[in-house]
Design brief:
4 helices, 5-stranded mixed sheet, about 25% helix, alpha+beta, 4-stranded antiparallel sheet, about 180 residues
Length: about 180
């Protein structure tokens, strides 16, 4: 069993090796873990949309459906690390939450779940790829309901077989899209 200290050390190593950032996460507040939520995601202030997008593009390629730039003005998120690092727990699964497929954002919100933000999803992709060489959502797409584009459309992310794809989802569900619930 990995302890919180082990998770923190792992994230410090990840940031140092992947982003060349030395970060002290010893004071970070880690939310209480719930059954089934086994992957910790730690977001630091340096993880802007532009930095995450560029790192993903350099490591394995990124495609986006829209022509606008991918920055913090274009992508709005419920949680941000601007005032300091934060941590969330997510399910440690390659594809998004099976039990949350084919439901609308309204239904998702009614279940009192918190949704993943686009920066958290890209960070999870980078961490997963760094650990395994693989990619998330090869058979589904994660609806990042914790974020929205300036057009109010909701981002969704998936592996298209060649690169990570960032698209948008309507508020109603379709196909193999699903949410990733988080513990904050």
């Amino acid at each position: 069993m990995v302890t919180n200290a082990g998770h923190i050390s792992d994230w410090q190593t990840f940031y140092r090796n992947v982003f060349d950032i030395n970060v002290d996460l010893s004071g970070i507040k880690i939310p209480e873990k719930a059954a089934g939520f086994d992957r910790l995601i730690v977001v630091i202030p340096e993880m802007t949309m532009r930095n995450l997008f560029e790192k993903c593009d350099r490591m394995f390629g990124v495609w986006k459906y829209f022509s606008e730039g991918i920055d913090d003005d274009f992508v709005r998120s419920e949680r941000k690390a601007a005032k300091g690092a934060y941590a969330i727990w997510v399910k440690d699964a390659i594809d998004s939450d099976e039990e949350l497929k084919n439901i609308s954002k309204k239904e998702f919100g009614a279940k009192a779940f918190y949704g993943m933000t686009l920066p958290e999803r890209l960070l999870m992709e980078l961490k997963f790829h760094n650990e395994t060489g693989g990619h998330l959502d090869p058979n589904s797409a994660t609806i990042c309901s914790g974020s929205n584009f300036s057009s109010w459309k909701i981002p969704m992310v998936f592996w298209d077989g060649e690169k990570v794809a960032i698209d948008w989802a309507e508020l109603a569900s379709f196909g193999t899209t699903s949410f990733r619930s988080v513990i904050t």
